[in-house]
Amino acid sequence: MTGKRSASTIACFLLALIVFAFAAAAGATTIAGHTTTLPYFYQEPDRNDAKSYLPIWQYSDFSANDMGVTGLNLYLYGWGRIDTYTRMDNDSIGDGDLAAGYIEYVNPEDLVTVRAGRQYISQGVTSSNVDGGYFMVSGWGFGLEGFGGVPVYTDYGTRAGDYCYGGRLFFRYKRYVELSASADSFYENRIPDNTHAGGEFRAWPIQQVMLDAHYYYDLIYNMPYDMKGSVRYRPIRDLQLLASYERLAPASMIGKTSIFSIFTFDNYRVGTGSVSYRYKERFEFSTAFSYVTFDDGSNAPKVDGGVAFFWGDHKQDAAGLDYRHLFDPDRGYDETRAYVMQSLTKKLTLGLDAMTTFLSESVNGVSTSFWGQASLEAKITDKFSIVGAGSISTNPYLTKDARGTLKIVYNGEHTFGQTPAGGVQR
Amino acid sequence: MNSRIKIIIGMITLAALIAISGVLLADSGAIRFSHKNHPGPCVDCHKEILTAKTLVIKDHLPKMKTCGSCHDIENKEQCDRCHKFLKAGYQAQEKTYNFFHYNHPKPDCVTCHGTMESGKKRMMHKDCEECHQDDIKKMRCIKCHRKFGTPDIEALSGYRHSMGYVDRHGDDARLESRTCVQCHDASFCYDCHAKRKGLPKIEVKFPEKLRSAFIHRGDYITRHMYDLKQEPGKCQRCHGQTFCQDCHARSGLTVSPKTSFSGHPAGWLDSSSPNFHSKEARRNIFECASCHSGGADSLCIKCHREGGADPHPPGFKGKLNSQLSTFHDNPKMCLNCHTRKRLCSYCH
User: Fold this and answer.
1) A107: Cβ–Cβ under 8 A, 6 or more apart, which residues?
2) Which residues on neighbouring strands pair with residue A213, listed in sequence order?
3) Between B2, B21, B142, which is nearest A425 by CB?
4) Domain count, chain A
5) Does residue A44 belong to the interface with chain B, where contact is any CB pair within 8 Å?
6) Is the model's pTM score more than 0.80?
7) Residue A79 burial (CB < 10 Å; 0-12/13-18/19+)?
8) A15, A75, A79, A172: best mutation site toward chain B, by most B Cβ within 10 Å?
9) Domain limits at A139?
10) A326 within domain boundaries
């Protein structure tokens, strides 16, 4: 984390805390907090000796709703890490960041949304973390949303001269048809890195059928980079059939300012079909087949499948078998997985999970890997739980691997006074 | 003190404060009650129900002094007759609907709740559907349902999370994120979509969620290079440029003076060989960059410098005019191989 980024993160975090304190004082109707403490032990072998690590992660999120005004909400989500044994990063003994921190206003009819702070923007062509502002206004079927700010990059770089903006105009017909056009532009050090524009379409002509399509164009490379169309069909309630086709251009995902982007021009297409079926909430079957074809003619088909059985308290007591096969005689694999979750008592749940992978090639004379995990979840109260988990694995690259964690979770929520009528709850 | 340590200490302190406040603010109390045994006009007890604009359930119920008109509330020995679990304490009932009587006017209480003699009638979903058809079609469940975490509701909806939903959830999220937040807390998105470096993979945070469709479950190290080759774009959507190299460097897999590791097949540098590197590099330069630190800066230009092998993709020159302004503003890429003097001389 650079000094500049570190300073901006701390400033953002402190500002959010001040607003949070203000929220409590202003009489928010609901204040909720969720924390997860996660000590995690693992070994990461290198060539000469096996290093052991014991980082402790702390995740915390807080939200305050209806802070004096209906729909005025605050949300914070941050994490921190301390390396208690071996440092994961030689430069420091820990790390931390504010993953999200924003204040928003959503009017009671959900027709206006305004948000400011660190947030994840998911609208049309845009899917990105941004420090900045967002708005959405809608009425009479039409809507407009837009954002602007500084992009939060995944794992590298300084932010000097970085900025971004974008928007989406949409129209919804009363039953359920949505048409929209969206565009965004991202700059790195004042140089255009990504500039995209496109459109989306969704229709639900009858209850059983849902149609989806989008077409996104890269205005820097002057080529379509992400196109997709799909049909979801449910002839009966518990059966869903899906077919989709998409075309992707990886160069556009990398970003223009990356040196790698000039080399990556082999686009590819993916055709996918899937079927899923549930029987009386006791049995579930799913399978999917996807066929990837690159522009040079090579292809990479893949099939996934799985069955699951449920008993007792649905979703808690379950067992399943999953299978995946990647078709490639040289570099493919078969993956099998079996798992079971069983309530031992009202508060204790045991989980067992095992995966075996059979590689089509032999690496270091080995072509099989195994991974197994056991977990025990104790729900001490409705708000407080502890999970212990341990796993072992062997594979052609790491001789043997053992990992363990003890997760402590607290979920708190309190409602003060009254919730104004018609308030949109998040 | 290091600023990051300050952040961590601050977060732990806040976590502790939340935990303590949760314990202090926890509600308690439950009443043993049946409408069958309490005949009379509803509003005699529920005095404010027709005008109430609060969702706090205890505000809709009669106060103890109302009970005192018939019961001897001063007799401490009879507390257990009405108050359940008085000694052990219990979890307060939570109102789970955004429902107000004042904006659902009916001629009388019996229409929805049945008669006192027949017992309390439970309102069913179909009772609401007549008026709320549009909300149901649009999956605006949160308009009525305050808590909407019912596990199987996704199975009944058009947003069924069947196999492969992780790959296609973006189709729903980019248009209907408001539908997603009805069941998922905001942290649900941020667990994957927030800045990731420094965080463990999501499967580590949720080891007990065996039913979740995690992408990197188990020993993903064994499988990751096969998935990368099968569909490189899928990895690039989330992982940045240095992601691979960082991990490979820590694992001793990066080419360096200390290691002699090479995963290249025979004929990798032989242009007449079917294993020649150009095809793989064109399709997935990330696989090269995952071992060769600095990618093009340190490795490719050894051969691909100006006057050497041409790394440009087919049709590059044809597209140059349309992209000229971009290259003009950002010649950084070009200058890796071309000298500035020669590069400018092509046009000027």
Assistant:
1) A71, A113
2) A201, A229
3) B142
4) 1
5) yes
6) no
7) buried
8) A79
9) 107-231
10) no
